[in-house]
């Protein structure tokens, strides 16, 4: 939170802003300027030496700050990760069905986490799982890039993919 008016403890402050001549002022001078303009003295950067202050209407300042934060939040891109699960002996029909779904996910702009799940003794077929994931990555190479090659984590072999950047 910002310190305002009497709550500012520094002896000198650096004033910045539109309605005041910029420079270093004593706290008393800065307070007099703020009173004269019927505005608040707001500490913007308390860690600077001397602290940086601005003479503004504090309520308006808070409103604009909240508005700016809201705009930045709206601009943020939310990354959605979709998962596709295979077995080590997934046959062609199931593979093609899952490949179509993966293509849709990538076109929507989602990241993709494809994995082969090994049950019981099927862990013996980890080479088959790796071949399956590499084939999957190869089939999607025109629309997606591989973020991480197949890695075995416990009973899962995982590959991460994300959409390729569109060329302008």
Structure characterization notes:
With 168 residues, the protein is α/β, with parallel strands linked by helices. The chain folds into 2 domains: 68 residues, Ubiquitin-like (UB roll) (Roll), CATH 3.10.20; 83 residues, 2-Layer Sandwich (Translation Initiation Factor IF3), CATH 3.30.110. Helices cover 35% and strands 30% of the residues. It contains 4 helices and 8 strands. The strands form 2 sheets. It has a 4-stranded mixed β-sheet. It has a 4-stranded mixed β-sheet with strand order 5-6-8-7, with helices on one face. The chain is rod-shaped, with a radius of gyration of 29 Å. The mean pLDDT is 86.
Give the tally of β-strands. Answer: 8
Using only C-alpha atoms, the radius of gyration works out to 29 Å
Main β sheet profile: 4 strands, mixed
Shape: rod-shaped
- What is the mean predicted local confidence, pLDDT? 86
Q: What is the element string, with H for helices and E for strands?
A: EEHEEHEHEHEE
Task: Estimate nothing, just give the exact number of structural domains.
Answer: 2
In a few lines, what is going on in this structure?
This protein is α/β, with parallel strands linked by helices. It has helices spanning 27-36, 58-75, 92-108, 126-139, and strands at 12-16, 23-26, 40-45, 52-56, 81-86, 111-117, 144-153, 156-163.
């Amino acid at each position: 939170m910002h310190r305002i008016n009497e709550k500012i403890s520094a002896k000198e402050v650096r004033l910045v802003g539109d309605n005041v001549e910029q420079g270093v002022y004593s706290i008393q001078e800065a307070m007099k300027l703020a009173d004269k303009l019927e505005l608040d003295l707001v500490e913007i950067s308390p860690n600077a030496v001397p602290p940086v202050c601005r003479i503004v209407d504090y309520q308006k300042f808070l409103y604009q700050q909240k508005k700016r934060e809201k705009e930045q939040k709206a601009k943020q891109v939310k990354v959605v990760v979709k998962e596709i699960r295979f077995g080590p002996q997934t046959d062609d029909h199931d593979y093609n069905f899952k490949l179509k779904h993966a293509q849709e996910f990538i076109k929507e702009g989602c990241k993709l986490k494809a994995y082969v799940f090994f049950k019981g003794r099927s862990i013996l077929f980890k080479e088959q799982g790796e071949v399956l994931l590499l084939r999957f990555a190869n089939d999607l190479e025109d629309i997606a890039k591989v973020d991480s090659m197949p890695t075995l984590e416990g009973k899962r072999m995982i590959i991460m993919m994300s959409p390729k950047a569109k060329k302008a």
